[in-house]
Amino acid sequence: MSYAYLFKYIVIGDTGVGKSCLLLQFTDKRFQPVHDLTIGVEFGARMITIDGKQIKLQIWDTAGQEAFRSITRSYYRGAAGALLVYDITRRETFNHLTTWLEDARQHSNSNMVIMLLGNKSDLESRREVKKEEGEAFAREHGLVFMETSARTAANVEEAFIQTAKEIYEKIQEGVFDINNEANGIKIGTVSTPPTSPIGSNVSGQSSNSCC
Amino acid sequence: MTESIDIDIQTTIKPNLYWTSLIAGGVAGLVVDVSLFPIDTIKTRLQSERGFWRSGGFKGIYKGLAPAAAGSTPSAALFFVTYESLKSFLSQRVAKEQAPLVHMIAASCGEIVACLIRVPVEIAKQRRQALLVKKGTSSIQLLYQAFKQDGLSKGVYRGFCVTIFREVPFSFIQFPLWEYLKTQWEPYTGLTLNPISVAMCGAVSGGIAAALTTPLDVLKTRIMLAESDAKNKSIGKLLKSIYRENGMRGLFSGIVPRVMWITLGGAIFFGFYDLTTKFLQNNDMKSWFGLTQRSPKNRLSLDNLKNLLSVLEKNKTVSEANRGLLVESLRCIAEILIWGDQNDGSVFDFFLEKNMLSYFLHIMRQKSGGSSFVCVQLLQTLNILFENIRNETSLYYLLSNNHVNSIIVHKFDFSDEDVMGYFILFLKTLSLKLNSHTIHFFYNEHTNDFPLYTEAIKFFNHPESMVRIAVRTISLNVYKVDNESMQQFIRDRTAAPYFSNLVWFIGKHVLELDACVRNDQDHQSQHRLSNLVAEHLDHLHYLNDILLLEIEGLNAVLTEHLLHKLFVPLYVYSLTPPTPDLAVVTRNLAAVLNKIVDIDDVAETCDNPRVSSIVALFLLSLVFLVISHSPLVHALAWVILNGDHSVFKEGAAEILNNYIQRREGSMVALGFVQPRESLEEALDSSSLNNLSPSTSGIINNDTSSGSSSPIARQNDSSDASLSEEIEKKSCRPFLDMILHSLDCNENDYVALLALCLLYALANNKGLNKDWLDLVLNKSSSPVATQYNDVLIDKLLNIIHISSTPSCRVRLVTIELTLKLLTQLLNSNSSQISDNHRTSLQQARSQSMTVLKNFYKSEDIFLDLFEDEYNEMVKSNLNVEFLCMDETILLPPTNTPLTGIEFSRRLPCGEVEKARRAIRFFFLIRKMCQSINNEVEQLLPLTNPSHCVQIENALDLNNSDLIACTVIMKDGTKYRRFLVIDILQLILVEPDPRKLGFGIAKFVGFLQDVEVNGDKDDSRCLHLTIHRGGPSNNRTPILSAKFIFDDHIRCMAAKQRLTKGRSKARQKKMYQIAQLLEIPQLNESPTPIYSSMLRETRTARTPREHRPLFSTSNRIPGVASALRRESMPSGSVSRSQLVSSRTSMDGSQKPSSPPINTPKSRDGSKNRRSHSGTPKSRDGSPRVERTSEEIPMENLNSNPSSRCSSNAPSRSHTPSRLTTDSTNTLSLAKEVISTSTINGNIRQRSEETSFIGSSSSNGNSTGNVEEKEKRRKGAIETV
């Protein structure tokens, strides 16, 4: 499958907040969430379209790597987007956000788009973290915020696509160095060439062909 | 949903495709034709040659329904079967950009096929519709009649060509349009595609196509209705004749019903088509047509698993046709297994019994079309399986036969990103399940097979960073497992090949980094460099993580590889400049010694790759910052500090021997060279041949023959041997080079990196401090230098250079130098020599001289000064972070355009020069104080403990208060009283519990106040208070509109704020002057101060304040009222205050009588009676209430004013400032401020001060805690 860009995502947050379920819900809709059966996966890819361009999202949820310092530090750097997830029914997962964010900011490239997700929004009765708190946290740290539910699939799609849109906008603005794969963005093999920044030779060629 | 996913889904449902489209098409066709038949009839009649009314008008509108209904189902079904299968067939073979073409072709072919049925039916239908048929004739008879009359092609298939001629263009327009609309639906509307939206797409595309193809339809109707084809005109002629007869209207006759019909029809047709398709897909086609047995209703059950097994059994070969089904089955199996893991044990029994993993393997091994598609699903299934399983037994079941290992060794198509991702994460998931029990499932002791590990490390240099990360995780997870034989296997079979390749990989990376540094003197590719540095750090951390696991054997191998393959031959080698004449020297030496030396070898060493000394220093710093494995860092440190060039020939094996216990002779040859075998080859060969410990890491290089022979262990007391060793050495080229680099006469480019290395060496956890001292100091030979002293001298020299105004030393270098210097001086047990001390003092006075040049009374200097101080307090130099910064690898620059942080570049412009001078002054001041064991007393300029905090309760008796309304930006309003202190602006609200007290609701520093008048409202002020202090937040702490009661108060407030601001600033500038020991300021106060004093002494100011004091009825509290009584003039004049204060200074204080302590009750009564004056109550509505509960200390603090109204001078005593901290009178009657900062300045500037005191005493009746919280004090006016 050809694509214009490939964006690498990571999903971070405490264990048990439903990271891998979110991922699976987004990448493979055929897994319909069933009561009392939670299935997750640590890797997935899906195509989306932004601005008429095919974009492949590749999501890496590398749970269980916290034991080694070398792993945590390199993990963040390879991603263009990160979904920072907490569980609205568990206060402590919300409290740990600061630590996660610090880690992410320290190790990632500064342009990484981070989105804050309050997962398990379907469990309204057991809610411990108010939506407003999440919003306030996001505002304070300059993140985009959404409440999602991997079970009902609410906002899951939107969360991933919204993040991709922000990355795409950053590319358009020229903030991201797209030629550097370490930023978590890869230019696709086929299809439209990337928007070249003031490509002198490109314009030269086109003027030649015009005349 | 995107096109690609469309295709995806279509391929997944492929086996059902024919059936689905057949049924869906049929249903759709039938529904449309039946529901829209009347419109069709009307259209036919409109187009008929006989005209609408003669053909029947609205009569018998359902004529011909039967043949239509009979024909529409098969023709629509035929159409869709052809269309869908052609589409899916073609779209796999054609680029996505040509999708419209695919749709056109598929639709056209579909039409042609469908017409085989449609044409005869149309003929029968239209003849009936146009009432050309006699009653009683059946449709079959009708067709038979036509067949008899005109034969097959001219009768039954009359108009076949013309129908195709109509339908094909129609489809050409409609289908690409429809497909296009479908793909655009989601992006534009944001809704998912459902049958209704599909229907709408169909309606639009149909309508457009119908309108455009109307003439062709007219033509077709004419031909078909003609009883016999007597004229046999060509299509063109027919069109012309229609045009001639009826004009454009003729050509487009019936356009309205046709468009309407097809629009409606399209909607219904496509809507029903989509609906039926979805319906059929969801309901599992298989059960409908007996492809398999009936699916049980419960998806998650053992029964369903049995069904799925039979699917696997029946579809052993993967083909285009069944792969979708297989994928779906695999997916379901994963779900059921996980469900079973948590709910039903029998599921796993069944899974095991039927050996279902073998089916997986079987499917995987087939190289049929689209195998990667099935493999992705398979790997996903496996991932899900192993990741989500919680039950230990289930896991053992899954692992029990060797299938998982077979899956691991299977050669997937790793060029596919998704396959790669799923595969490596599958291995990672497995590695996370490893423990001393499960290891046996993966590692086979007898065959020495450990595919999980060996397969994983083959990807150690995969281009995808996430894959590399996963490989590292896997390897670390493997090493972690405590299993003797497995670790033996790792060490003997895999360690050498893996580590040699890994080290080579790192080395190549380093060369790349070096090239980047060399070519980037202009900071052009900082991004790339930054990534390279980060990547290199990842490697180092990974190596350190391995070393930290403390696996002895493994660490020994790794250490040797690192040392002999990378650190010594590349890093250390690059420290000293290339010596082109080395060969010459050797030759001479050889001549002298009469020995034959292989000069080629020496030459070869010269040809070795080398990195710049900058990079080498940097890399070595990183090594010592990250890695703390004792043998490795010791050996390397030894080489650097003590070694000479001979190390490149002999290696560091000897040194290593001192630290590694069970070292079996040196096996790793020295030299930065590519490993002979790639890792993959090495692993394969070692597993195949079962060779004795792999030798692939060893290169039998002649140069290293000396080192490869095992060296006898030296004696155990390493220290002794070491010191002997040291004595022998007199030449330490590497250490000399480092020390030499510290010279920063020109700039500090190299010096900073050398400092980093020295710091890293001194702070490495693995290095023994004594040992380091030993290496540095113990040089018994008289010629040898005391390196420690040399080092200190060098560092002091850096400081000295930095103190000159035009130096080119960055702040970070200075900071690091000082840090290192502190460390060295502290570790040196001996006292700091006087030389060092004087040198530092000199630097300090030099820095003060420099800073004096920048000392101006401009506002910005104060801000800079405080800002720099805050910055310095906040930042604590972290060398590890510093070394993550790639910019230190590049030559120092001064332009901020590079984005380099200020302290890591040279100052640019006057302001930055001032900043730098300030910061250097702070740093050197701190250093000097620390060596002299002094405590900082003058910094920071504002002592926060002397400031009012929010919620403090303040005694505002005697204070100037201006009532105002504060309107915040968001519209909220507060009623507050404005109080202005020496340094602070305070907004208070009356304390409900104590009369005359206020609670601070807001505090801000006067120096940060910005006041603007309002041109529309003279009672208004716009106040912005900026945020000073050590915070990153740059939003103002307050930005609000203040409304006063009248313009006079407003003006007064403005004046006071402006004055307060400038005074606060002057005061601080004076403090700075003191810090800098600026002489003239030391002797006499600034001119402004003195003039102020003069002014107040002449007592001209009181008038200005008068209205506020005397007439304001807003002033709460008794004091003001009292004042009025006591001072007929109605104002507290500052001059009076001052004069009284100065006069009282010695005498008044002790003489103020201890009246109050015992009279708490009386006092409160007294007070109440005072507060009874109506004037004072006006402004403070709470007086009545508060007076009831006045705690005692309130009285205490203001005794004189209350008790004797005739003694005005006494009322001022609370505000007295005194430097005498031992004055205990405060307990009873006076609240005393102990001013540590500039006591005399304060006195002179005679501004208000809160007199912090801990005067609360036990005899008070009030709540003690309450008192603690509250702040007692009095405020007096400016």
UniProtKB/TrEMBL annotation, chain A:
One Gene Ontology MF term: GTP binding
In the bilayer, the protein is annotated as: Lipid-anchor
Task: Check the record and name the SUPFAM superfamilies matching this protein.
Answer: P-loop containing nucleoside triphosphate hydrolases
One of the GO BP terms on file: vesicle-mediated transport
Q: Is Transport among the key words of this record?
A: yes
Origin superkingdom = Eukaryota
Compartments (UniProt record): Endomembrane system; Golgi apparatus
Keywords, comma-separated and alphabetical? ER-Golgi transport, Golgi apparatus, GTP-binding, Lipoprotein, Membrane, Nucleotide-binding, Prenylation, Protein transport, Transport
Query: Could you state one GO cellular component term attached to this entry?
Result: Golgi apparatus
Keyword hit for Transport: yes
Outline the segment boundaries, as ranges, of region: Disordered.
189-211
- Annotated family: Belongs to the small GTPase superfamily. Rab family.
Q: State the protein's name.
A: Ras-related protein Rab-2A
UniProtKB/TrEMBL annotation, chain B:
List the biased-composition ranges (Basic and acidic residues). Answer: 1096-1107, 1175-1188
What residue intervals traverse the membrane?
A: 17-39, 250-273
Which compartments does it reside in? Mitochondrion inner membrane
Domain CLEC16A/TT9 C-terminal, first and last residues per copy: 527-686, 721-1235
User: Where does it primarily localize?
Assistant: mitochondrion
Compositionally skewed regions (Polar residues) per UniProt:
702-721, 1212-1221
Q: Where is this region: Disordered?
A: 702-724, 1096-1221, 1243-1278
What the entry lists under InterPro entries is as follows:
CLEC16A/TT9, CLEC16A/TT9_C, CLEC16A/TT9_N, MCP, MCP_dom_sf, MCP_transmembrane
What's a single GO CC term here?
mitochondrial inner membrane
Residue ranges annotated as compositionally biased, kind Low complexity, are 1129-1143, 1194-1211, 1248-1263
Q: Which GO BP terms, alphabetically?
A: autophagy; endosomal transport; regulation of autophagosome maturation; transmembrane transport; vacuolar transport
The topology of this chain with respect to the membrane is:
Multi-pass membrane protein
Q: Which keywords belong to this entry?
A: Autophagy, Membrane, Mitochondrion, Mitochondrion inner membrane, Repeat, Transmembrane, Transmembrane helix, Transport
Does this entry carry the keyword Secreted? no
Mapped Solcar repeat ranges? 16-89, 98-184, 193-279
The record places domain FPL at: 330-479
Report the sequence similarity comment from the record.
Belongs to the mitochondrial carrier (TC 2.A.29) family.
Record-linked PANTHER family: PROTEIN CLEC16A
Protein name per Swiss-Prot or TrEMBL: Uncharacterized protein
- Organism, scientific name: Polypedilum vanderplanki (Sleeping chironomid midge)
